Amino acid sequence: MKREERSPWCFGCGTQNPIGLKLDCREENDKFIAAFTPGPEHQGYGDVVHGGIISTLLDEIMTGYPFFKGLGPRTARLEVQFRHPVFVGQPVTVTGWITGRNGKLMELEGKVTFADGTVAAEGKSTVVLVGDKPLKVPAADSSRP
């Protein structure tokens, strides 16, 4: 079962969330990767993408990776360093990877990059794993808007 099918209303990857980011993430060479092109609804001011959206992209790609692997991650800590502004309509690639694990704690890093490889933002995350078994996510509620 694909990740988005287990969580169709996820703000980051859910396909049924009308205001979500609808990230289509894939695993490649021990990294989790998604492409994203922000629209005008993602801006803060002056065509610059809101920092909360950039933070959400990083949280989604880092926490989403262990979720994709069938674990039950919960973000415990998220650090974001903004390097360059991302503008509306400017495609970016979001990449996350696992850097370590100590029991129920997993450390991850991520980055948002432009097509030329320039890093727009970097993140570090600690997630708490609530189980080593696949998550049991309730079926989608068809009555939701």
UniProtKB/TrEMBL annotation:
Membrane topology of this protein: Peripheral membrane protein
UniProtKB keywords: Apoptosis, Cell membrane, Cell projection, Cytoplasm, Fatty acid metabolism, Hydrolase, Lipid metabolism, Membrane, Transit peptide
Organism: Pelotomaculum schinkii
The Thioesterase domain, residue ranges: 48-120
Membrane is among the record's keywords: yes
Annotated localization: Cell projection, Ruffle membrane; Cytoplasm; Membrane
InterPro entries: HotDog_dom_sf, THEM4/THEM5_acyl-CoA_thioest, Thioestr_dom
SUPFAM superfamilies tied to this protein: Thioesterase/thiol ester dehydrase-isomerase
GO molecular function: hydrolase activity
Record protein name field: Acyl-coenzyme A thioesterase THEM4
Reactions this protein catalyses: tetradecanoyl-CoA + H2O = tetradecanoate + CoA + H(+); dodecanoyl-CoA + H2O = dodecanoate + CoA + H(+); (9Z)-octadecenoyl-CoA + H2O = (9Z)-octadecenoate + CoA + H(+); hexadecanoyl-CoA + H2O = hexadecanoate + CoA + H(+)
GO-annotated cellular components: cytoplasm; membrane
Predominant location: membrane
UniProt key word Hydrolase: yes
